Structures are given as C-alpha cells and as structure tokens.
Amino acid sequence: MKIGIMGGTFDPIHLGHLATAEFVRESFSLDEILFIPAARPPHKLCRHVTDEIHRLTMTNLATRSNKFFRVSDMELKRTGLSYTLDTMDALHKQFGATTELFFIIGADSLADLSKWHESKKLVARSHFIATTRPGVDVDFSATEKFFGSAASEHIHRVTTPAIEISSTEIRERVKLGRSIKYLVPEAVEEYILREGLYL
C-alpha cells in the first residue's frame, strides 16, 4: 500500500487541506490519505491551540464524504510533544514494512525540513511530498544538499492548484463575526458556530 499522511493542528481544517490531499492522492496513486491532528506541535507552543476533541471532531466531519480519507487520533493519545519521526515510526509498525508512507508538506516546510527533529532519520525512512503553488519558485538546493542521495529518492515535489485559505484567517473571520462559508466544509462551519469556537 501507499499511504499519504496529512499532519497538522487543523485549527480548523479547511477546504485547502482537503483539495490538496485529494490532488496529491490522485497524482501519486496513493491508496488513502490519513489525517493526523497534532497534539502539541513543537513549533506552535507559543500560541493557544483549540482543544483536541474539537479539532478531531472537525477533521472527522470534513473527511467523512471521501472514501479515501481516514482520520487517526494517534498523536492526541500520545503524551509529550508531537514529533513527526515518532508518528512515522508508529505508522511503519502499524502498517508493516511493505507499506510506503508519504508525508505531505508545504514547500515552505520543506525548506525548513533539515531543522526538524532527527530529520535525516525521518527522510531515510519515509517519503515526503512537497506541495508548491503555481508561479511560486522555492529554492530547495540547500535542502537537497543537506539530505544528499536521500533527497532524490524520498523527497518529491508537486504543483497543486492555488487555494489561498489559512486557518489563521478563518479564526480571525469568526472572531470578527464574518462569514467562513466556502472556506471550510459546511459541517465544519456549523460545528464552529454551534460550539462557539474562535470567539
């Protein structure tokens, strides 16, 4: 099997996440996409992150209409910080050695991949798919030099449709009483309003 991994705080999950996941799934002939809400991402300790039960529920609501999408709460069950290496190691054990894992990240994250926890081990054990936007040129030469031969074998790039939506913008719009319709799935919009999130 070939499984795509979409990690993130999903605070909230939005249509940009979903469209990117579906585009990558089809482009790389992946069997499924596994969405994994992060518990305590090391790079976001400085800001408040919405309670995990809300983020998990919104992710389930957003993905339920796609038969190729699944959600895992594995990081939410684990104590301590959420390191990608720990998650990928656990997934390798869960799915077995014959399953290929493809971690989906944005081009900006790929440029910083060398700074991730145990990044060389991470790239050696898993594939990465970096999504870039049309017309946006990102210099990956330093990243490719850092990872050497593993970069050409395990780091892939794909240009995805430009969908300019951010979770930060959505939270701000809710706080200001502005519409988030067509930025998130309808079920997620209803959940946010019903639970009074981001006010």
Describe the structure.
With 199 residues, this protein is an alpha/beta fold. It has a single domain, classed as Rossmann fold. The protein has ten helices and six strands. It has a six-stranded parallel beta sheet with strand order 3-2-1-4-5-6, with helices on both faces. The radius of gyration is 17 Å and the shape is globular. 32% of the residues are buried.
Number of domains: 1
Q: From the helix content, strand content and strand pairing, which structural class follows?
A: alpha/beta
Q: Strand content of the residues, in percent?
A: 15-25%
Mean model confidence by pLDDT: 92
Q: What would the keywords be for this entry?
A:
single chain; 199 residues; alpha/beta; Rossmann fold; 6-stranded parallel beta sheet; 17% strand; globular
Q: Which helices and strands appear, and what pairs or packs with what?
A:
Blueprint: E1 2-8, H1 15-27, E2 32-37, H2 52-63, E3 69-71, H3 74-77, H4 84-95, E4 100-106, H5 107-111, H6 119-125, E5 127-132, H7 141-147, H8 149-154, E6 155-159, H9 167-175, H10 186-195
Parallel strand pairs: 1-2, 1-4, 2-3, 4-5, 5-6
Helix pairs in contact: 2-10, 4-6
Short description:
The chain is an alpha/beta fold. It has 10 helices and 6 strands.
